[in-house]
Amino acid sequence: MASRNKVKNKKARERESKRKPRLVIPEEIRRVVWATLLFLTAFIVLLAFFKLAGVAGEIFMAAMTFLLGRTVFVLPLLLVLGGITVFTTAKKHFLFPTFLAILLALLGADGLLGTLAAHNQRPAGEMGGWMGYLLSWLPLNFFGIWVSLAIFAAMIALGVVIVWQLARKIKPPEDEEGEEKTPVFKKIFVPQFKIKTLDAEGERADGSTPISVLTPSPNSSLDRLKAGFKVKPTDKGLSGGDDIFLRKASQDSACKLPPLDLLESDHGQAQSGDIKVNSAIIKRTLENFDIPVEISEVSVGPTVTQYAVKPAEGIKLSKIVGLSNDLALALAAHPVRIEAPIPGRSLVGIEIPNRVRAQVRLRNLLENSLFQQSQSHLAFALGRDVAGNPLYADLARMPHLLLAGSTGTGKTIGLNAIVASLLYQNTPDTMRLILVDPKRVEFPVYNDLPHLLTPVIYDAQKTVSALKWLVSEMERRFGVLSGARTRDVLSYNQLMIKEQGEIMPYIILIVDELADLMAAKGREIEAGVVRLAQMARAVGIHLILATQRPSVEVITGLIKANITSRMAFQVASQVDSRTILDISGAEKLLGLGDMLFMSAEISKPKRIQGAYVTEKEVRKVVKFIASQAKEGEEETDGPKEKLAEDLEKTLESSVHFSENGDYFGGDDPLYGEAKKLIIETRKASASFLQRRLRVGYARAARLIDMLEEKGVVGPGEGAKPRDVLYGVDGAAEVVENEEGWKKI
Description:
Elements: H1 2-18, H2 27-49, H3 54-68, H4 75-88, H5 95-119, H6 129-143, H7 145-167, H8 184-189, E1 212-214, H9 240-252, H10 275-288, E2 293-300, E3 304-311, H11 317-321, H12 324-331, E4 337-339, E5 348-353, H13 362-366, H14 369-372, E6 379-384, E7 390-394, E8 401-404, H15 411-423, E9 431-436, H16 460-484, H17 489-498, E10 506-511, H18 514-535, E11 541-547, H19 557-562, E12 565-568, H20 574-581, E13 594-598, E14 606-610, H21 615-630, H22 639-653, E15 656-657, E16 663-664, H23 671-681, H24 686-693, H25 697-709, E17 735-736, E18 742-743
Parallel strand pairs: 1-2, 8-11, 8-12, 9-10, 10-11
Antiparallel strand pairs: 2-3, 3-5, 4-5, 6-7, 6-14, 12-13, 13-14, 15-16, 17-18
């Protein structure tokens, strides 16, 4: 019996799910329709007064005069007031109160005229029409003239009060967070994304919960930031120290911040398809697998549309997650990503790609008041989430960032957006850059920037030298901060501003392709990156690393442990996704800037459509800043120029390392250490140097060959160990130098 009831219930659910969803007109459209009808009726009545409405107007005028008498001349005014009230009121249930007010005012005026006509013994139906005569007959015979007048005057006053109560809500009310709600006409004519409301408040006719479609409005929800990405504004703008810091940088620097006119604005809208049909398909597909759900809300974003479903009690989330391919088949959309659960909510998010994607331009993100009022100098625009809300991050709080993804998924554009965001906030006095581009084609556009401490670096050995210089600069800055008794670079700069000293700029190292550097100089690159990632935050040195090969050989365990903020673009497999984020999901992204962002402040990765900036826009920004710098080239050498000179000397003294492992322009930098080690231990072998110096076998063998050429070690004799010739007693060519070492 129980199984039979279960089958009946399942069939009933199937019939209900197959039933086509009823047509629901959005509230904003209903307002426009009813207001238009009221205005049109008032216009027709007004034309009928002058016999300009044709035969229908004459018939209508005769009928209204017979019923209402002279009250018909008040009808156009009441209809116009009703239309204005419907169009401007903020109340959601507006139709019944509006028509009730019009009816009360009309009947009150008609009854008032009918009472006056009967009291003055006028013919029946002369002033208020036959409707006024009928309305006034009962109160006039039972209560007399004065009570009758009071009754009809009260009806008119009641209609006026209702209209007043509706009309006084024209000013948008403030919500709980103090933000003004967008007026109706702005919601209709100025949407950022397509705005749809699938049902009014309350329950549907079948008793199910209505679906609310969440789309960003141009004034309120677009300005909200999700937890973990906030750059919190204050009521008074920037804090005192930051404000002084900005003013000082703006006054003393020859470079001015570029205008936003150099960038392009958003254009086009995302098209998500038929939301009602997709909701019904999702519900029916899940119910076919005995997973009853209710569609709670739908969020339309620039790249995907997220359907938030609420499963019934007792349903395991793993069952829903495992149905992503079945949902993709039913919806004819690929790929479908399931977020179970949505962080902070008891809902499951099903993300379906939009039919038409919307570009997220950098200018619209930088124009946002939250970015303009940000307290950090290292805040940058990430993009928009699945609901279209703008998201930002702060490099100073991260304090380092790792980007990874397959070729052509938007990593370089993401780096350009980050650099552009930083350039719109910092002059060369407040931030300096070191750019590393092993591919030689991505960063040359920035070579004219005055923010660069050195021209764009292409060589792996120069990158190692730059890392070593950054480590020494980090140690020097720690000494400076310790002497000034300050804990970080921001407090030190505030102190220097008060004492009329020189501020300490942020230094940001940006690497476009880490895999090439790790292949050439793996151990040295990893050691430098880890050392900086562990300690450089307090002194204002930050790293941004990008790679298109997210393997464990490139993103090692030490690098992952010290860089917790990561951007994962589209990858080829779950293995690559787990290498970057420690969870799967990046393999189901759509490319072209679609990414998952994770930081230490959030528990689960957040899906974001990254900001888009073209190479043409980047060139405009660089050209503007470079032209500003050329106008003030008469500056004296300051600490910032000394930083650039020190780095240039370090890079010039570095030995160039070719692809086949040969050094040009001098000995291997490890030659002295290898010679000292062999003389002290009296052991000369490539494997020994490989273990002690932590280098590859090819380099260790090359060091042995160099030592043999210099006469430090003897020639190889098969399996026998080499003889150490340095320091042999009785050799006439061996002398001792001032450091106690014996030298040929």
